[in-house]
Amino acid sequence: GRTRVEFNKFLESFNPEEKNEEENFYRLGWCRVKDDEPVEGSQAVKKYDKLMVLGKPGAGKTTFLKYLAIKCNKGDFLKSHVPVFIPLKQFAETELDNQTQPGLLDYICQSLHGREVVENQSKAEQLLKAGRVFVLLDGLDEVREEDGNRIIKEIRDFSRKFSSSQFVITCRIAAKEYTFEQFTEVEVADFADE
Q: Cα–Cα distance between 3 and 65 in angstroms, integer?
């Protein structure tokens, strides 16, 4: 349902003269999941600097983000980056002293300042512009409906402004239609014994 095909590519596969419309429909690949070879999660993160991780409830999306943050913190993964894990529901519901919602930059500054990584916003911006921050945004589907548009706009603007930094967003499959043009979408595979 999230596959996007350019119109010319669509027409290449479509033969209107065939009588069996249902077979023609399936030959285009609609209603079938593309069977790509699975890729190990951290390899996908290395390959794509803007990644949207989709998955069923309980598929391990949050666990995967926390695993990446811990590996990054230990210097085992993206060792020149500072990981910042942000539960989007918590971010969306946070209010500043004057009862306004913070932007992602303010929220990240609070996170980094608590760990004494940066002393002020300009240093956080320097890290973000230099591509040294690993931004992990968890649970886009968990954001309340009334906060949804604001959070989506905030993520779009922030990821464009700091395009050098690495981003991973998680979201449940079919929660809503989110479109982040710069992000590559992958789906968490079902667990197997291995």
A: 24
* Order of all β-strands in the sheet with 166-172: 82-87, 133-138, 166-172, 50-55, 184-187
What's the angle, vertex CA 122, arms to CA 119 and CA 124, rounded to 5? Answer: 65
Residue labelled with tokens 């500054």 = 109
The pair of structure tokens assigned to 171 is 């979201």
pLDDT digits (tens, 9 = 90+) for 33-64: 455 678 899 999 999 999 999 999 899 999 99
- Residues paired with 82 in a beta bridge: 133
pTM as predicted: 0.78
The total of other beta-carbon atoms located within 10 Å of residue 101's CB is 16
Closest CA to 166 of 130, 192, 115, 112: 130
Tokens of 187: 């789906």
130 residue type, one letter? A
